[in-house]
């Protein structure tokens, strides 16, 4: 019998993950009916907090602390890790809201003294194999072992070494295959992740909820490291995601790896966004993406709750003017709300110009306490807009295309049901779409006109190749559609660049202004907008013929103009 089992394992290794996933990851057509993302219990009133930033960026303590946080917080959130000043701001907000009464700032030693008994043993990572960090994290999730480096393992004398990963594999893909062969059936079906082995902020959440992890390398990574095998990793990820249920979030991010690897990229040679969209998964950008640090402490934030209602403001009287609205991109990621958006809202020029802030609805599950801050502190010029596109960031033209044709309709129906439910929970009435590289067919776009109470669709991350001054404003199923007219721009990091960027944006807007009045324009602002003063200067330079309005006012003005025709 033992001989037969060994032969089975050998054959299975030759077959690969695709066949194994059929056994381990049964296809389920629906995610949870309760929440899209898993949520923690309510936080404890006393929180033990560690300033990770004080340990240094190369500290080996980050891995065991993050994984221990997940093990402990699984029962009740009690550990909070402050990776930077923004985490400290949000911890203070938790106390101000009443979620937490006492914060005890301690060091790693105090955390281990109090909480180490939660772990059941140690798993030693392989310093020469980045993938062993992700595998050790998943072992922590299912076995309760604490991942440590070889050096740190000597400092946990009371815990026995349950497994040593050093020298077990030569390539990352071998480590992932080994893990999913043995433990795949124990991993979550409610979420998945592509996560850089060099990042740590999300590991508490992944451990808490046993989230299956992969990391797909870039071809350049294979040139630098013998452990990377991008083509195999991409196929592994595709097979894994296809066997997980459709309409679940994929967390993490696809590039800007911090462990010496670049990652396959959002739009790279293996296009992470194309991959997950084709497998009917939607992205929740929550890791470092080159602009915002990964969002940590989700095992704490997800245990909070809030009710969301937007402030409404009547539009100005309609005149023969050019009405335009700004939407700020990338709010589909909770990492942006934790860091970038908080920084923008803290600036003195915030609130002087109307802005539509893109919002990913999964924030309702993951960071309700953080969103509560923004809803409470919104000015009369702030409005929240459903980000790319519906419940999560997808490539709309590719969604679910690898699923059997007979299942695709049901998957889209479920995607829209989830999107509509969270659309109401977040008090949203506006939607932005991605559609930057491929033209979205009208039939696909029409899905989103069914969202409850939708007033307008703001199309495109930035200006599409076929967009003109004449076709930028239209309708679909009676819903106004405003396509982005601003191309790529920026940056603002020097006085000279600031002046040039403002001038370029103004020129772009004027170039795509139609002759007919009144006119209506969508100005999509991407990550070059790091200084709210730029919007004040753009508004000033455009002059009195151009009127900046809220994103929920533009469709009302447009519909009034249509009635007058």
Structural description of this entry:
The protein contains 22 helices and 19 strands. The N terminus is likely disordered. The protein is an alpha/beta fold and 565 residues long. The protein has two domains: 211 residues, no CATH class; 243 residues, GxGYxYP glycoside hydrolase, C-terminal domain (TIM Barrel). The chain is 38% helix and 15% strand. Helix 6 links the parallel strand 4 and strand 5. The strands form five sheets. Strands 11, 12, 13, 18 and 19 form a five-stranded parallel beta sheet that branches. A four-stranded parallel beta sheet has the order 8-7-9-10. It is globular and about 80 Å long.
Determine the number of helices (DSSP H or I, runs of at least 4 residues). Answer: 22
Per DSSP, what share of the residues sits in E-state strands of 2 or more residues? 5-15%
The radius of gyration computed from the alpha-carbon positions, rounded to a whole number of angstroms, is: 24 Å
Largest sheet: 5 strands, parallel
Global geometry? globular
Average pLDDT confidence is: 93
- The low-confidence parts are 1-32
CATH superfamily of the largest domain: GxGYxYP glycoside hydrolase, C-terminal domain
In the CATH scheme, what's the topology name of the largest domain?
A: TIM Barrel
